[in-house]
Design brief:
Elements lengths: L2 H23 L4 H16 L3 H13 L4 H13 L3 H14 L4 H18 L2 H17 L4 H12 L11 H14 L2 H17 L3 H14 L4 H13 L6 H14 L3 H13 L3 H14 L4 H15 L16 H13 L3 H14 L4 H13 L3 H14 L4 H13 L3 H14 L4 H9 L5
Helix pairs in contact: 2-3, 2-4, 3-4, 4-5, 4-6, 5-6, 6-7, 6-8, 7-8, 8-9, 8-10, 9-10, 10-11, 11-12, 12-13, 13-14, 14-15, 15-16, 17-18, 17-19, 18-19, 19-20, 19-21, 21-22, 22-23
């Protein structure tokens, strides 16, 4: 071998070694993991503001880090800022064209856009990016279960069974090198396929594993409860109540109270059903079903107390009664009276978040936006996971002609309660697709 050839080979080896050492030295910034943690926590509260702020700071401090751009892309996408999210993902791909995670991040943007707008082109693009991510790293479990889930939306129900092995592979990959949040999601998505195939025991088993892996997995509690109620072979109402109860501990939601109320009705436990319907109504004051059920069941719930010995002393109005009076006054546009009633409610029950929201609405309708803002902030601080507060504030903004603020609040309500028909209708009324 000629000396010049040896020199070239040696130079190439040195170059490769140099590239390897430089790449090895580029560690993932610590702020990436911290931001990912905030994103996971926001899945329950659906408030991604803190995660986005952290992601932006991380990206600014590490402008050449593909990982920082990836986590920024995720945070932007979860905040509905799809164009900016796409730009961040493209930047990550430019910085690391062989990064499986970068292509996964862009696929996630397409997937969230598809879920938000249901454009079939976004679904196709998401699958294409997840496929590219798997070409670069065949053991990328997150990309695999994401692609498989998106494929489920594109095939016939008779083909669903073909997806199970892909979900199983994703689970095995994530067991080896993934984190608990992604592993729990993989179990959850596989359970969804088992449900479609009416494989109830397998679905319950997967959801149980998801909860074992991630104990505060709200969606898993709710999904497992639904199976216990609706499975066609046998029901387990007590197990469903237990799961809904755990779900409500994590995040009180009107629709979950309503679902538990229905179960209590089936069991003949009327007082508990009424209590849950009232809780649902407090969170969603426009829930006509809750109002109807309370009117229907409340007399039965109070029968037991009707034989009590009456007292001569007049009963003082309760916080609940002041709240009901305030809602009635607000509906009649008697905002001064409503403000007084809600203030009395708060005097008797300072932690009545709903009264803060309604008083904020009444104050806003009178033009006192500063006081309204204070009231809504107090309500959200007390109950950060309640869709009703955002919906009520959105209604206030809508009535005042503040369209952008209304849209933002209605979307926030839907993040907390995706089945909130009132928020969907309000968005449609504003000419916006839910």
């Amino acid at each position: 071998m000629k000396r010049t050839q040896i020199r070239k080979i040696f130079a190439a080896i040195c170059l490769l070694f140099g590239l390897f050492t430089v790449a090895s030295a580029q560690t993932t910034p610590a702020c990436v993991a911290e931001t990912e943690k905030l994103l996971f926590e926001a899945e329950i509260s659906t408030k991604y503001d803190s995660a986005l702020k952290a992601a932006e700071e991380c990206s600014n401090k590490n402008p050449k880090s593909a990982e920082a751009k990836i986590v920024l892309s995720k945070a932007l996408a979860y905040n509905y800022k799809y164009d900016a999210a796409m730009y961040a993902a493209l930047t990550a791909i430019e910085l690391a064209p062989q990064s499986s995670d970068a292509f996964y991040a862009r696929g996630l943007v397409y997937e969230l856009k598809f879920r938000d707008g249901l454009d079939p082109k976004d679904k196709v693009s998401a699958i294409a990016d997840y496929t590219k991510a798997l070409e670069l790293n065949p053991r990328n479990g997150v990309a695999l279960y994401s692609k498989t889930y998106m494929r489920k939306l594109s095939i016939k129900p008779t083909e669903f069974s073909t997806l199970l092995q892909e979900f199983t592979n994703a689970i095995e990959y994530l067991k080896a090198n993934g984190n608990s949040v992604y592993l729990a999601r993989a179990y959850f998505f596989r359970s969804d396929t088992h449900i479609s195939l009416k494989q109830w025991n397998e679905a319950v088993s997967d959801l149980t594993m998801a909860l074992k892996t991630r104990p505060n997995y709200l969606a898993a509690f709710n999904r497992r409860a639904e199976i216990f109620v609706n499975r066609t072979d046998k029901t387990d109402l007590e197990a469903a109540i237990a799961d809904y109860t755990e779900s409500l501990k994590i995040k009180p939601e009107a629709n979950i109270y309503a679902k538990r109320a229905v179960i209590y009705e089936k069991k003949g436990e009327t007082a508990k059903a009424v209590s849950d319907w009232r809780a649902a109504l407090a969170l969603d004051p426009f829930d006509t079903t809750a109002k109807a059920q309370i009117a229907k069941l409340a007399p039965a719930a109070t029968t037991a107390s009707s034989n009590q010995t009456p007292t001569n002393s007049p009963k003082q109005p309760t916080a609940e009664q002041f709240a009901a009076e305030g809602r009635s006054q607000a509906a009649k546009k008697d905002y001064d009276g409503a403000i007084k009633s809600f203030s009395e409610c708060l005097r008797l029950k300072p932690d009545a978040a709903a009264c803060y929201s309604f008083r904020g609405f009444a104050r806003g309708m009178k033009g006192d936006l500063a006081s309204a803002k204070t009231d809504f902030e107090a309500a959200i601080k007390l109950e950060p996971n309640q869709a009703a507060h955002y919906f009520i504030r959105g209604m206030m903004y809508s009535e005042l002609g503040k369209k952008d603020e209304a849209i933002s609040d209605f979307r926030a309500a839907l993040k907390l309660d995706p089945n909130n028909q009132q928020a969907k209708a309000a968005l449609q009324k504003l000419g916006v697709q839910p």
